[in-house]
C-alpha cells in the first residue's frame, strides 16, 4: 500500500530549504545545507520535502480542488454567498489563495534546488542516487509548469537561494521557461525508475515524465506560445507511454471500469496501469501524521450531516448544464455513457442518518462532482476536512486523448491510430471492456421488520467477484434500499444477496445484473470526417473523461476557447434553451463565475507582497 516513509516530511530538519517567502532565506533552525546532506536517509527526507508541496492546503491538498476556478466551463463554485474571490473570477492581486499557491510552488523549487546542489555529496548506490536526482529535477520542472501556465512569464529558478540579499529574480519570457521545463524533464526521463520498479503511482516514474512531457508540448503548441512544431513532440512522448520499448517501459492500459479508477483512489489502492501519477494523502489527522487532504471533502457529493458512514463534504463544485449535455442520453436519468453517473453525482445526501435522494433531470445545475465519494473511505473515523483519498495528476486515458489530439494536428487529418486511441477511451466508457456482467442494482423485495441499524450486505455466488453493497433502514425498522458500492465483474448469473445483523429479520433482496452495452461507442464517420470535427470531438471527450481533474481551464486556454466557452455558459444560465436549459432560481447565482470571467483571468496576478519581496516581478500581468 502507500509508502508512508516516503511522504513523511521532516519539516524541522528541512526548514533551511523551505523559505516562508520566495526570497526570504534566513535559516529557521541551526541546521545548514552544508552539514545536512550526509546520509542516504537525509537525502530521501529532502526529496520527501520536495514532494510535500503538492499536498499542502495551498495546492492540491485543498485550494486547487474547486476553490480556484480551474474547472473552467465544467462547473461552478457552489456558494451563493461567495461574491468575490478567484473561485468566481472576481478578485484582486492581493488574493491570498493566489499568493499562497505561488509561494508554495517556489518553496518546492527551492527545496529541489538545494537537493540537486548537494546530492552528490552522499555516498550511495549510483542508480538510486540518479533516481532521486531525476525525481527532484522533474518536480522542479513540474512546479515551474504550474507557475508558467498560471502566471505567464515568471522567474526561472535553477539554483538555491542562499542569501537574503537576493532580492531580484526577473521574470523570464514564458517560452524560455517552457524550454527549460522540457530540458529538465527530458534529462529526468533517463534517470527515474519505471513505474513497475516503483510499484505505485505516488512517485515520479518514466511513464509520468513521458506523459507530462506530452502535456507540456501541447501547452506550448497552443495559445499563447503557439509553437505548432511541439505537436510532433507531444505525439512522440504520448506514444512512448502507450507503446513503450520492452526494455524501458511498462504496458499501461485502461481499467475495465471507469468508476473503479476512483474507487481505488478513495480506498488507497494503486492501479498503475491506469493511474500513472497521483498526489498521495494518508490518514484522517487523528495522530501526528499530517499528510491528509480534502479530496472528496471539497469536490465530492455534498453532505453536511453527521452520518459517520458518509463523511462531511462541502460539495464546492456543481456542474454546468453544458457538461451534463456532453454525455449521451442527456434527457434521461440513465446514460449509455457510464461515466456520467459516476463523474456527476446522481443523488444528493441529507439528514442523520443519511438519506440519498435521486436528482431529477430538471435538477442538472444542483448536481455536484461525484468522482471522489467519501463514503468509500476505509479510514475511520472520518474527519470533516482531512481524508486519505489520492488525487490524479496523470491517467492513461489522458495520455490516449493527448496522443490523438497531437496526431491529428501533425497529420492534419484523423489517422486510424488516433481514432483507435479515442475509441479505447469511449469503449471503456460504454462498458465494452467489462468481462461478463457486473451487479448494477439490488431490488429490495421484502423490507423485513425490527431493524435498529443497517444490516450487513453479503453478495455470494453468480460466478463473479468483487461486488459489495450497503443497506439503508427507515424509521420504521425496515430495509428500504441496498446500494451497490462496487459492481464487481465476471457474473454469469445473479448472485445471492444476504442481509445479516442490524437487530431485525425478514429482509430480502435480489440482484440485477448489468447488460454489457450493445450500442457501438466507436466514433462515427461524421465525427472523424475532418481535422476540425475530430478536434472538437476530442475537446468534448476530454471533458467527459477528465472533468474536475484541474485540467479544463488550461485546455480551454491553449485551444483559444476560454472566453468563448465561459460566455456560452453565462448564456446558458440566463437564457438557456434546448438542449441546454437555463439554471433554476435556486442556482442562478452560479452565473457569477461566467459573468465575471474576462481575458485577464487567463493569467493570475502577482501579489503586492511578492512584488515587494522580489523587485523583478514587473510589470504586473495585463488587466490587473
TrEMBL record:
Domain RagB/SusD residue range list: 380-435, 521-624
Cited Pfam families: SusD-like_3, SusD_RagB
Database matches in SUPFAM superfamilies: TPR-like (SSF48452)
Main location: membrane
Swiss-Prot/TrEMBL keywords: Cell outer membrane, Membrane, Signal
Localization per Swiss-Prot or TrEMBL: Cell outer membrane
Signal peptide interval: 1-20
Ranges for domain SusD-like N-terminal: 22-218
GO cellular component, one term: cell outer membrane
Membership in a protein family: Belongs to the SusD family.
Full protein name: RagB/SusD family nutrient uptake outer membrane protein
Species the sequence originates in: Sphingobacterium haloxyli
Amino acid at each position: 500500500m502507500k509508502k508512508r516513509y516516503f511522504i513523511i516530511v521532516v519539516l524541522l530538519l528541512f526548514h533551511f530549504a523551505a523559505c516562508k517567502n520566495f526570497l526570504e532565506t534566513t535559516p529557521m533552525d541551526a541546521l545548514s545545507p552544508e552539514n545536512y546532506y550526509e546520509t542516504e536517509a537525509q537525502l530521501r527526507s529532502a526529496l520527501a520535502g520536495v514532494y510535500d508541496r503538492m499536498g499542502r492546503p495551498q495546492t492540491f491538498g485543498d485550494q486547487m480542488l474547486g476553490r480556484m476556478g480551474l474547472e473552467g466551463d465544467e462547473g461552478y463554485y457552489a456558494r451563493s454567498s461567495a461574491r468575490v474571490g478567484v473561485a468566481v473570477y472576481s478578485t484582486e492581486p492581493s488574493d491570498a489563495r493566489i499568493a499562497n499557491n505561488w509561494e508554495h510552488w517556489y518553496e518546492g523549487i527551492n527545496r529541489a534546488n538545494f537537493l540537486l546542489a548537494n546530492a552528490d555529496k552522499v555516498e550511495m548506490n549510483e542508480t538510486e542516487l540518479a533516481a532521486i536526482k531525476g525525481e527532484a529535477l522533474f518536480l522542479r520542472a513540474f512546479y515551474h509548469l504550474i507557475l508558467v501556465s498560471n502566471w505567464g512569464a515568471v522567474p526561472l529558478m535553477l539554483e538555491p537561494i542562499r542569501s537574503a540579499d537576493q532580492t531580484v529574480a526577473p521574470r523570464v519570457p514564458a517560452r524560455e521557461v517552457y524550454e527549460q521545463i522540457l530540458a529538465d524533464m527530458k534529462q529526468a526521463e533517463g534517470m527515474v525508475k519505471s513505474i513497475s520498479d516503483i510499484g505505485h503511482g505516488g512517485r515520479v516514474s518514466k511513464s509520468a515524465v513521458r506523459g507530462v512531457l506530452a502535456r507540456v508540448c501541447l501547452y506550448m503548441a497552443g495559445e499563447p506560445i503557439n509553437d505548432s512544431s511541439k505537436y510532433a513532440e507531444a505525439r512522440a512522448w504520448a506514444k512512448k507511454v502507450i507503446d513503450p520499448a520492452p526494455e524501458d517501459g511498462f504496458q499501461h492500459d485502461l481499467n475495465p471500469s471507469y468508476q473503479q479508477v476512483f474507487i481505488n483512489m478513495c480506498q488507497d489502492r494503486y492501479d498503475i496501469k491506469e493511474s500513472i501519477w497521483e498526489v498521495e494523502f494518508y490518514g484522517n489527522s487523528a495522530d501526528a501524521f499530517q499528510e491528509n487532504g480534502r479530496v472528496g471533502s471539497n469536490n465530492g457529493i455534498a453532505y453536511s450531516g453527521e452520518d459517520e458512514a458518509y463523511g462531511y463534504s462541502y460539495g464546492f463544485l456543481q456542474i454546468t448544464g453544458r457538461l451534463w449535455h456532453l454525455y449521451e442520453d442527456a434527457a434521461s436519468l440513465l446514460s449509455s455513457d457510464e461515466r456520467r453517473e459516476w463523474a456527476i453525482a446522481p443523488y444528493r445526501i441529507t439528514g442523520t442518518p443519511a438519506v440519498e435522494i435521486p436528482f431529477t433531470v430538471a435538477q442538472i445545475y444542483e448536481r455536484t462532482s461525484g468522482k471522489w465519494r467519501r463514503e468509500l473511505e476505509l479510514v475511520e473515523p472520518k474527519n470533516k476536512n482531512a481524508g486519505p483519498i489520492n488525487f490524479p495528476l496523470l491517467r492513461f486515458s489522458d495520455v490516449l486523448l493527448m496522443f490523438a489530439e497531437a496526431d491529428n494536428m501533425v497529420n492534419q487529418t484523423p489517422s486510424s491510430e488516433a481514432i483507435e486511441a479515442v475509441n479505447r477511451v469511449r469503449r471503456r466508457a460504454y462498458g465494452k471492456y467489462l468481462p461478463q456482467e457486473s451487479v448494477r442494482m439490488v431490488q429490495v423485495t421484502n423490507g423485513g421488520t425490527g431493524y435498529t441499524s443497517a444490516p450487513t450486505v453479503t453478495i455470494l455466488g453468480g460466478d463473479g467477484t468483487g461486488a459489495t453493497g450497503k443497506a439503508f433502514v427507515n424509521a420504521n425498522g425496515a430495509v428500504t434500499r441496498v446500494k451497490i458500492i462496487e459492481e464487481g465483474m465476471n457474473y454469469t448469473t445473479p448472485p445471492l444477496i444476504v442481509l445479516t445483523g442490524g437487530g431485525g429479520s425478514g429482509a430480502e433482496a435480489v440482484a440485477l445484473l448489468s447488460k454489457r452495452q450493445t450500442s457501438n461507442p466507436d466514433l462515427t464517420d461524421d465525427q472523424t470526417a475532418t481535422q476540425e470535427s475530430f478536434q472538437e470531438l476530442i475537446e468534448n471527450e476530454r471533458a467527459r473523461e477528465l472533468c474536475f481533474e484541474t485540467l479544463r481551464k488550461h485546455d480551454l486556454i491553449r485551444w483559444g476557447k476560454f472566453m468563448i466557452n465561459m460566455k456560452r455558459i453565462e448564456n446558458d444560465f440566463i437564457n438557456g434553451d434546448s438542449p441546454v436549459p437555463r439554471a433554476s432560481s435556486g442556482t442562478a447565482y452560479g452565473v457569477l463565475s461566467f459573468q465575471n470571467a474576462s481575458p485577464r483571468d487567463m493569467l493570475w496576478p502577482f501579489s503586492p507582497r511578492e512584488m515587494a519581496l522580489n523587485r523583478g516581478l514587473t510589470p504586473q500581468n495585463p488587466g490587473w
